[in-house]
Write a sequence for this structure.
């Protein structure tokens, strides 16, 4: 059956309207619709800056590596959340390591908000080096857009503890949210400088990715180096990372997406846990002061949470959880990226994957307890 001229004209008009509407969309929204939901390999289409490794110091593998088998009940529960990697290290030896879906010890994965904890560590190093006068220094001393009005009251400590009082909406499901704009957009400084204070800084905890991005902007100004260069020089090389990491940027040659998007291998992610376990030492070097790390991995209890109770779960961009009477600092990303530090067992647990539980127990997702249980089982059976 032949299509009438009127029908063809109508179809052509609809196609033209769709094309024009697409072309008029903001660039970040086109990127979001093109690439879909955030994933572990997003660095392959983002612009990136290398975090160069130096002389590699590979982990020692225990003679008994992987001799311990997790019970089927635990493994089946773990596999419900589409895992990519699970690693347990004790006494600086790998005792358990498992990968899924083609991942291996060199595969790079998006960190998501695990990157926030890295920025917390780099802030401590800049403080130790005197590039930051104190944690109570005004952000406005580094960023002109924060040197006036209510924003001049925000301190570096407020950014570290997620208590800046800024008007940022931490929403991951809406393509129109500022968080989506930050992830897929091309002008992070413009987005950050346009924020306003709506709550008194330093009083109440409110998790905002903008706080970490502002810390990165402070560090870039304080150090005179990109975040990736500073991370490579002060941590990545000194910890003996085996693989180069890549930090995704808002555009080619632009600013690191500091609130997410540090792309590294599972074994190299574990080095951050070991650094905390070592209280900032690595071989003969003190990379971060013990004093800073102790505060960074302890709850900022002077703040109030959303229920107006003292914060007992967050420090300086690091989460804290109590498990079996042990206070465990950990790094956390939205798709179930975790690095746990277990001081009592001198151990580290790393889990990477594509999903996490939607059920929260307080401030912690339910799957976190599953990985701690799995790691505890392995450690007890050693």
């Amino acid at each position: 059956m032949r299509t009438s001229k009127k029908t063809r004209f109508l179809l052509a008009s609809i196609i033209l309207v769709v094309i024009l509407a697409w072309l008029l969309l903001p660039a970040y929204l086109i990127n979001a619709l093109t690439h879909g939901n955030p994933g572990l390999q997003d660095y392959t289409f983002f612009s990136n800056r290398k975090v160069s490794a130096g002389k590699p110091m590979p982990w020692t593998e225990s003679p008994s590596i992987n001799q311990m088998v997790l019970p089927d009940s635990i493994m089946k529960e773990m596999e419900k959340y589409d895992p990519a990697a699970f690693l347990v290290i004790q006494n600086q030896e790998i005792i358990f390591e498992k990968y899924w879906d083609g991942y291996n010890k060199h595969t790079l994965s998006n960190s998501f908000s695990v990157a926030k904890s890295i920025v917390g560590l780099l802030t401590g190093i800049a403080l130790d080096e005197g590039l930051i006068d104190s944690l109570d220094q005004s952000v406005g001393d580094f960023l002109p857009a924060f040197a006036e009005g209510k924003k001049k009251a925000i301190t570096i400590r407020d950014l570290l503890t997620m208590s800046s009082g800024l008007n940022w909406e931490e929403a991951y499901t809406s393509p129109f949210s500022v968080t989506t704009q930050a992830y897929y957009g091309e002008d992070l400084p413009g987005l950050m400088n346009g924020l306003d204070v709506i709550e008194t800084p330093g009083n109440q905890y409110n998790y905002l990715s903008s706080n970490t991005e502002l810390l990165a902007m402070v560090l870039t100004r304080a150090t005179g180096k990109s975040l990736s260069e500073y991370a490579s020089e002060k941590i990545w090389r000194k910890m003996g990372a085996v693989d180069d990491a890549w930090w995704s940027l808002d555009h080619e040659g632009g600013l690191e997406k500091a609130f997410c998007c540090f792309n590294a291998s599972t074994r190299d992610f574990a080095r951050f846990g070991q650094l905390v376990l070592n209280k900032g030492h690595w071989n003969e070097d003190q990379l971060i002061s013990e004093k800073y790390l102790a505060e960074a991995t302890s709850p900022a209890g002077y703040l109030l949470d959303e229920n107006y109770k003292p914060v007992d779960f967050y420090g300086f961009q690091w989460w804290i959880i109590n498990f079996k009477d042990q206070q465990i600092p950990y790094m956390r990303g939205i798709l179930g990226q975790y690095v746990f530090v277990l001081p009592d067992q001198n151990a580290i647990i790393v889990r990477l994957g594509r999903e996490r539980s939607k059920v929260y127990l307080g401030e912690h997702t339910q799957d976190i307890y599953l990985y701690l249980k799995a790691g505890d089982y392995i450690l007890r059976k050693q």
Notes: The chain is about 35% helix and 15% strand. The CA atoms of residues 80 and 210 lie 31 Å apart. The chain has one domain: 55-381. Confidence is low (pLDDT under 50) at residues 16-23.
